Amino acid sequence: MRYTEEPYISLGSKRNFGTLPNKDLLINHSEAEIASFTHTELKEYEDSLKAYRDIKNSLDTAKDEGRAEGMAKGMAEGLAKGLAKGMAKGLAEGRVETLNKMVSEMKREGQGYDLIEKLTGLDQKDIDAIP
Q1: What is the DSSP string of 51-63?
Q2: Which tens digit of pLDDT belongs to each residue from 11-45?
């Protein structure tokens, strides 16, 4: 078997996915050299390609799954924050509406400003603004 400086990577694998600066030239040249491989060298070359592709596919799959998991987590967190914000806003608006109804009813019944201020915490200016 032909080896490069990395003992577990065959020459064919190094040629096909190499790190040399003139890799394109080496890949173009490698086709002729691959044709001259012995049966054993060709098997090792194909095994190294298969191993590379398996590892690359595993990494790509893991990356895609991680990205999908991150998106799902982000969407869930965003939805939870949005719902909490919406609920808080809805509750605040509901309280204001309830307070306005209460003040209107008290004014209609002729209650004085002192009692309305005491029960609602609003000042006279805010009480006057409510129809």
Answers
A1: HHHHHHHHHHHHH
A2: 444 444 445 454 444 444 467 777 787 888 888 88
Looking at residue 46, its amino acid is E
pTM, entire model = 0.43
DSSP state of 10: B
Under a CB-based contact definition with an 8 Å cutoff, are residues 1 and 10 in contact?
yes
Range among 5-9, 46-50, 80-84 with highest mean pLDDT value: 80-84
How far apart are alpha carbons 57 and 42 in whole angstroms? 22
What sections of the chain are H helices per DSSP?
11-17, 23-35, 39-108, 113-120, 124-129
Residue located via tokens 């409510």: 130
